[in-house]
């Protein structure tokens, strides 16, 4: 797939387009599944001001949004973090989650165990490599799914009541990471209702009802409900790339 994600932020006076290629690698590949470039324009006249590494921004802004959701929705005494998947997004989520939150235990599972072992060896803190997704998930307070799964790998009967799940993979209308039981028995938050109802197989195929957009919680128009089992379905929004690219460009400009 080749995706084009244009956005203008009036609040930041920033205009960008992200070009992202998405290739489903049947075998483990040294090339990431997602690669991206951001074009940064001058909003007043349309001239191109910068070409920015979109892969780094995608990884970091996605994890940052998951962290915001987690801060709002996780149970008050969260001790165990579980990450399903060991790709680029696993690293960016690990970095921000261990920086912002204090977990006593971090677990990881990946379909190819070697990648999970490599992940555990390369990050700064202790990580427990689990032999199955169920082992990783059981008793976890916060769960992050960042896989290339097309059918469910996380099941409701494994999940601790009151846990918070950030569902980041399965970005196609016919792909799943979470099963129907989990989707229907959790309070569902999304980044964009419109996107979730057209792009997320977890939402579309389960028929789960969307409770709120994350922005509604941030604005105070919908409650967070951290005492419930919660799912944040992340698909990513072009405006996130725009704001992040503006931040990078302004920082770079200041340095020059």
TrEMBL record:
It catalyses: (S)-cystathionine ketimine + NADH + 2 H(+) = (3R,5S)-2,3,5,6,7-pentahydro-1,4-thiazepine-3,5-dicarboxylate + NAD(+); (3R)-1,4-thiomorpholine-3-carboxylate + NAD(+) = 3,4-dehydrothiomorpholine-3-carboxylate + NADH + 2 H(+); L-pipecolate + NAD(+) = Delta(1)-piperideine-2-carboxylate + NADH + H(+); Delta(2)-thiazoline-2-carboxylate + NADPH + 2 H(+) = L-thiazolidine-2-carboxylate + NADP(+). GO terms for biological process: thyroid hormone metabolic process. InterPro entries: NAD(P)-bd_dom_sf, ODC_Mu_crystall, ODC_N. GO terms for molecular function: pyrroline-2-carboxylate reductase activity; thiomorpholine-carboxylate dehydrogenase activity; thyroid hormone binding. Its EC number is 1.5.1.1, 1.5.1.25. One of its GO terms (cellular component) is cytoplasm. Belongs to the ornithine cyclodeaminase/mu-crystallin family. Homodimer. Binds the thyroid hormone triiodothyronine (T3); T3 binding inhibits enzymatic activity. This is Ketimine reductase mu-crystallin. It comes from Oreotrochilus melanogaster. The gene is Crym.
